[in-house]
Amino acid sequence: MRYMLRALPFPWFITAIMSLSVVGNAFGVQPDAKTETRRIDGYKGIWFTLGQFYGKGSGDRPYAKVSREPVFPYGDKYSGGLGTYTAKHTPLAIYCPEVEKTFFVYGGTTGPDERHLLCMISYFDHKTNQVPRPVVVHNKQGVDDPHDNPSLAIDSDGYVWVFVSGRGRSRPGFKYRSTQPYSIDHFTQISEEEMTYPQPHVIADNGMLHLFTKYTGVRELYWERSKDGVDWTADQKLAGIREPGDSNGGHYQSSAIRGDKVGTFFNRHPNGNVDRRTDLYYVQTCDMGTSWTTVDGTVLETPLVDVNCPARVVDYASQGLNVYLKDMKFDHSGHPVLLYVTSPGAEPGPPNDPRHFRITRWDGADWKTSTIGPTDHNYDMGSLDLGNQNDPVWTVRIPSASGPQPWHGGGEVVLWESRNQGGSWVKKRQVTSNSPKNHNYIRQPLKAKDPFFVFWADGDPTRMSTSQLYFADRSGQNVWRLPYQMTDDFAEPELVASPSSADADEKQPK
Questions:
Q1: Distance between CA atoms of 491 and 106, rounded to whole angstroms?
Q2: Which helix (H) or strand (E) holds 503?
Q3: Bridge partners of residue 309, in order along the sequence
Q4: pLDDT exceeds 80 at position 82
């Protein structure tokens, strides 16, 4: 594959011929003498701005012309602390009962005033309640864009895989594998290739099925599979839907696994325009991608190219609504469920209200859609949990409460619950409050186990800020913050919210 280069402070392609030692001792990154890995001295999330700002318009125009310079009150299309971005990177964390650790990846950086992307990995040790200094798996060498964040997989033998995203056709992606099972001490680079938004799924005894995006016209969906993670099939296109007469198309997707079944929801981008993303589709495979079907088993011919194909679940285009995918899960009957946001338009701010968090689910006979509640930004992102055998209550953890930077990405985290399989929703608890910076991109690990039940990052979307990482237990009553600065090899996260602290706050004079 040939890549076009763009000017960067340090050429990214050097990483193709260097091991993890490329990080060296720069940016406060210190070597581990025993393992020759590179660790940094704390959990520093990446901050990002897209640079598409919107101000108030005049007359019958609700928005002024988009600006590359900061313009308010509506601000950037999206920005803030994006260490756990994007919704199309999944999974980001996995609990492994074999070692009682939750492994997680995120987009880090080199310091409080830096936007130098480091693709990081670490773990929370459930036995000691500690985290180690995080490991740099891949130094993006001048890239400041969290679209290049990593995703995570752990194979049947316990080897830890990090899929580092590329972006477009100018920045490649990378696959890495740990040299030892359940270890983050050292990684080997397996490949360099074109892939964006990696979504690897490990299927027991069969290997991995990897869903991803390639910029072939514009953002089209592909898949590949491998028995061992080293030798992969050729890339196979899954979807490239176009309206009649359009030269381009595109999709974003959110996928999940249950047993040998992998399913994915996706939207479509009319003529490749992401600002018009709309409609909702669903496909699944039970044979590692050999065949793809609708939810009721109708076999599909891939790649999908027709707007009104049998995979379409909801026609949102006719309703004039954009669709922003957030998280997918399977319920206990093996039925797919999707969390997403709908909005009348792509620009931020009140003129594009109402925005709603919604659920679409298959009940075994029909697709059902319900509304959770309003939100104030298209890129507010959270996670869906469908309970367990002993507690079938469905919950979402989403930044649906207005935060310190209202009408910008993120907010205060709220726990909502449904006791009728998503038919109706009520607010159960506000997880964060009185925060100095918005919280966003709340992610749930596979096989999530308390207290590391969800994790996320904060950041100020209106100006560059530090970004810290947090996690919370299933109840949402206890929240911890990962250490931004570490002096020792291990540290206990800081408990920043608990029932006792909430009681203390309530007793404070108003």
A1: 18
A2: helix 499-507
A3: none
A4: yes
Specify the 3-state DSSP secondary structure of 447: coil
- How far is C-alpha 136 from the chain's CA centre? 19
pLDDT higher than 60, residue 509: no
For the chain, the farthest-separated pair of C-alpha atoms sits apart, in whole angstroms, at: 66
Alpha-carbon distances of 377 from 73, 74, 154, 188, 400, rounded to whole Å: 13, 10, 33, 39, 9
Beta carbons within 8 Å of 145's beta carbon, 6+ residues apart: 48, 117, 167
Pairing of strands 75-76, 53-54: antiparallel
Amino acid identity for residue 355 in this structure: R
Side chain identity at residue 58, one-letter code: S
pLDDT of 107 over the 90 cut: yes
Please name the residue that has the structure tokens 């507010």.
Answer: 380
Share of the chain above pLDDT 90, in %: 87
**Within 13 A of 294's CA, how many CA atoms are on the CB side?**
15
Q: What is the CA radius of gyration of the chain?
A: 22
Q: Which of 230, 304, 290, 303 is nearest to 261 (CA)?
A: 290
Ordered DSSP codes for 241-271 = ---TT-S-EE--EEEEEETTEEEEEEEE-GG
Q: What is the pLDDT of residue 504?
A: 40
Is the CB of residue 73 less than 8 Å from the CB of residue 81?
A: no
CA 507 to chain centre: 37
